[in-house]
Amino acid sequence: MMQREDKMMGKDEQDPFILAGRVVRSRLLVGTGKYVDMERTAAAVAASGAEIVTVAIRRTNIGQNPGEPNLLDVISPARYTLLPNTAGCYTAQDAVRTLRLARELLDDHRLVKLEVLGDPDTLFPNMTETLTAAEVLVQDGFEVMVYCSDDPIMARRLEDIGCVAIMPLASLIGSGMGILNPWNLGIILERAKVPVIVDAGVGTASDATIAMELGCSGVLMNTAIAKARDPLRMAQAMRLAVESGRLAWRAGRMPRQVYQASASSPLTGLIQ
């Protein structure tokens, strides 16, 4: 029964999510910021079914501040794959320094999320600094998942550098505006040879489903869950949305037929 249920939920062995050589059981990745407290953070993460959980090293204590509440007390590395990120970094130098610190704190952990921001108002990525940081980190042995603009040329350059996942924004971080440019995202998906994971801008479950129906390997979100009226229910909704979107993509939608109807019932054998 469990095997059949997993297949119905889009987790069968014929459709593995492989990231940096690892098989990941959930295509929903979640953050840990903006919650009221750590207990609610832990509850929402559990409800999401996520395996990979992002941690902002510059904003969250994972051992670098002794005596303060430690996120690892509620988000255990034994249960989740932690994804240290460089939220709050505005230069390549700061981003590299931050992830080297994370590697020390997490016992030589190499899978990381790179983001280098352009300004504090839009939080749009600074792609020049992002490219510089990505080159240094890849050469330093990190497995880099990278937040970037939805520019297909930039995405290709990051993949050529050796990043293990490309993470274009759907819209501005925390905006909840959904996917504003599916056409650019489609070009990135068509060309990429590594997983493409939508990062930033998801507001509700339908946004996550659309990303998956386009062919994305996964979706990363934080604010959409943390700032919902009921974060636990929204976490569950996002889990189902990602799973159903992946199933729909695999099934293949019917062709669009503009100005032409098609009867859903048979046209032969009618009662005369």
Account of the 3D structure:
- With 272 residues, this protein is α/β, with parallel strands linked by helices.
- It is built from 9 helices and 10 strands.
- The longest helix has 21 residues, at 231-251.
- Helix 5 (152-161) links the parallel strand 7 and strand 8.
- The protein has helices at 2-8, 38-48, 92-105, 127-139, 152-161, 182-191, 205-213, 223-226, 231-251; strands at 17-19, 22-24, 28-30, 52-56, 81-85, 111-114, 143-148, 165-168, 197-199, 218-221.
- Helix 2 packs parallel to helix 9 (231-251), helix 3 (92-105) runs parallel beside helix 4 and helix 7 (205-213) packs parallel to helix 9 (231-251).
- A 3-stranded parallel sheet has the order 3-10-9. A 3-stranded parallel sheet has the order 6-7-8, with helices on one face. Strands 1-2 form a two-stranded antiparallel ribbon.
- Residues 1-5 have low confidence and may be disordered.
In short:
The protein has 272 residues and is of the alpha/beta class. It contains 9 helices and 10 strands. The longest helix has 21 residues.
Percent range for β-strand residues: 5-15%
Instruction: Please compute the radius of gyration using only Cα atoms.
Output: 20 Å
Order of helices and strands: HEEEHEEHEHEHEHEHEHH
Structural class by helix and strand composition:
alpha/beta
Multimerization state:
single chain
What is the topology, as strand order, of the major beta sheet? 3-10-9
Helix content: 25-40%
Helices, by number, come to 9
Average pLDDT reading: 90
Total E-strand runs: 10
Rough outline: globular
Separation, N- and C-terminal Cα atoms? 46 Å
Largest sheet: 3 strands, parallel
User: Uncertain runs with pLDDT below 50, 5 residues or more?
Assistant: 1-5
